[in-house]
Amino acid sequence: MQETKLSKFTSSLFVLPYFIVFVLFLLIPLIYGTYISFHDWDLLGSTHRFVGFSNYAKLFDPSTYFYSVFMNGLWNTAKFVVFSVPILIIGGLLLALLLQHLPDKVKGIFRTIFFISYCISVSVIAVLWLWLLDTNSGLFNHLLSKIGAAPIQWLTEMPYAWISIVAATVWWTVGFNMIIYINALNEVPNELYEAGSVDGATPWQKFWNITLPSIRPVMVFTIVTSTIASFNIYGQPYLMTRGGPGTSTKVLLMEIVDQAFVQRQLGIASAMAILMALIMIVISIIQFRLTRNSEGSVA
Prior knowledge:
Elements: H1 2-37, E1 39-40, E2 49-50, H2 54-59, H3 65-100, H4 104-115, H5 122-133, H6 139-146, H7 160-186, H8 190-198, H9 203-214, H10 216-231, H11 235-240, H12 252-261, H13 266-298
């Protein structure tokens, strides 16, 4: 009995650092942010008047300025999710399938090449793509000039601004999904493919009837996590387009930061952040349910 208690105490010590980080950097800010969202909280003011759900009501009242700010940011974020997530999912899977068919001697090299961009910070990614997309001296417009085409305003005109942000994001993060898919593909039993060959299945039939059902739970995971990550986009549009042209690429996190630290309306900004967090919670619930159903259907 004493050894069991000691074992539980030792296990708790290993969990304690993560629990402390969770409380300090997630739980307390979440509770405090919720508290602020119920107040008229000027960042530089000394008094903070309790207003209840007034801040939330303003975000859904079409007659208010905050409604247009919130909906514009939410709409732009949703567009980025729709543009980027399918490419991240399909592109990651295609890269993983490509690597599966390469000789073993070069698999590690190409896996590193495709994944290494994921290890670079967003600021470095933005600087790199700003250089590539510069109107006057960028590499892309230089190549266009070689074939006699007119230069493109990649970062100041639509739809090129969105194309540029999505391209930079996909190049930066698709390697993460690729690694996850490679691990999932390695878990598919070779006996299933051998049985398919005996039955005369084509490569497409093997992919559709063996590969996809076998990696379905992993696909659900990558779809949901990619959606959540894309919903939290901030660095790419902030550093590359500053939300322009106009507010066409000003996403929800940019609007929240602007309301909090430029307009000093911390109560409204906190309400917007809480609503964003609720959307993430809903997505997470869908993730768990889809994963559970997918595992049941595969089994």
